[in-house]
Structure formats: C-alpha cells, structure tokens
User: Fold this.
Amino acid sequence: MTYLALGDSYTIGESVPAAGRWPVQLAAALRGEGVPLAEPVILATTGWTTDELSAAMDAAGFAPPWDLVSLLIGVNNQYRGRDVEAYRGEFRRLLQRAIALADARAGRVLVLSIPDWGVTPFARDSGRDIARIASELDAYNATARQETLQLGARWVDIAPISRTRPTLLADDGLHPSAAQYALWTEAALPAVRAMLAAAPAA
Assistant:
C-alpha cells in the first residue's frame, strides 16, 4: 500500500533523523501491526506555505492512486501573517488535490492540525505575542477542520499535544522532537487503521 505525505517542516521532520518523522513512524507502526504500508513518499520542505506546496505538487506530477495521503500545512501562512480566509481557499484546493491523488477516496486522506509553535523557546525569544499566535492558529485549525470534514477526509487534532508537551522539542527549540512525533503517531493510528481497513471503493 502506498503513502504520500504532504506538508512542511512538520512532515519532513526538521531537525530530527529520518526515522523520527511522524509519517515514517506511522508507516512503521502500521507495518508492525501487519498492515503492508510502504515507506512514505514525502513532499515537504521547511518553510512552505500552501501555495508553495501546491507549486511543488505541480512540479512533482504525482498521479493517483495512492492508498493513503496525509496533509499538514498552514503554519507558515500564519507565521507570515496571511489572512485565514485566504488560507481557507488554498487549503481547500490542496485537500481536493489530495483526495484526487487518493483516487477520489476522501476517506483515505488524513489531515493533521497545525501544532502551536507559540509554546516554544523560539517563540518566546522572538518577542512575538504568544497569545496571538495561539489565537491565530486556533482560527487556522478551525478552518482546516471545517474544510476537512466537509469534504469527507479524516481530521486528527495534534495541537493539544504540542501545548501540553512543550518540552518535547528538537535541538533548535522550535520543531518537535521524535518523541513528540511519536505522540502524534499514537493519536493518528486509530483513524488510519480505520481508513485503511475500509472498503477501497470511491
């Protein structure tokens, strides 16, 4: 079974070893349970916004069918101060593309919420308004959740993990550690088990 992971620094696992990336941990956990899921193909780069991910997808030329597609994108839109309603439209189009890559099976697309980077030492040292970061990310995640559920994809909220386990960070003081990604994997596993066990029809 094939797996395509789309995103930004949180999907490529900035500052953690390749084995510590959450899509890699997810695939390994499922293989450990007997699910024949291949290593993920990851299209993600630190700093990407929604439009930059879309452009990269254009260049990559991926074609369906993929058995599982994950999407986690938006933190850099928020970081750059972009409007949440502009994010809504760009996120929706990305999600529609992800569903198309999953052979029009919305139930094979997993969306993770954006973690709260405002709890990190990087954010504290930046002089930014921590409460505003949290509020803006809540708005972004509410938007992504609404679009995800409306199109029939699966939503997993990992933002609370980032807020309750703020010390589980990589050495850069900003990105999650492999240990935090393991908690994301644990949160996503029940949904993904159900997704892959469901009938493959569109």
The chain has a mean pLDDT of 96. The CA atoms of residues 98 and 134 lie 27 Å apart. The first strand starts at residue 3 and ends at 7. The two ends are 16 Å apart (CA to CA).
